[in-house]
Amino acid sequence: MSVYPQLQLENPTSSAARGVAEQGPNLFLPVEFSHDFGQVKLVGEFGYQYFHSQEDQWVLGLLGAVEASDSLELMAEMRGFSDKPLSRGDWILNFGLRWALGSSFKLLASMGTGVSSGPQTTGFIAYLGVQIVPGEDKK
Q1: Cα-flanking dihedrals φ and ψ of residue 105, to 5°?
Q2: Mapping DSSP to helix (H, G, I), strand (E, B) and coil, where does residue 81 land?
Q3: Is the backbone of residue 120 left (phi > 0), alpha (psi -120 to 50) or beta?
Q4: Pick from 95, 98, 106: which is nearest to 73 by CA?
Q5: Which of 85, 48, 79 has the alpha carbon at shortest distance from 63?
Q6: Residues 83, 89: contact at Cβ < 8 Å?
Q7: Could you report the per-residue pLDDT of 36-70, keeping only the tens digit for each?
Q8: Distance CA 128, CA 64 (A)
């Protein structure tokens, strides 16, 4: 079990005005549970997101990951966002990977789509990033 508060600060560029990023500051307070089943890992998460310029929301998610090789992890995630706990909201199905690029870097990539119906449904989402892992010698 872990708790890891996340603070998102105001982006100094025009990203918030263009709708690429949320206007900050925003605070996410998640609680995460995980369990390894050999090469398969299940992770559950719930938390509360405080927004600066929109309605706050509850977050609920479940992620499954499998080690495809020593350097590649494949993942699938179902994640929901709602103004009330366990109510209908915006649910997203997301697929991704984490690929070790040597001992100090990992490529993170994912893409997904909303699977619920309604006016607040997410269309398409994608993420690409590099994780810096100082001092770690394995994935």
Answers
A1: -135, 145
A2: strand
A3: alpha
A4: 98
A5: 79
A6: yes
A7: 999 999 999 999 999 888 889 999 999 999 999 99
A8: 19
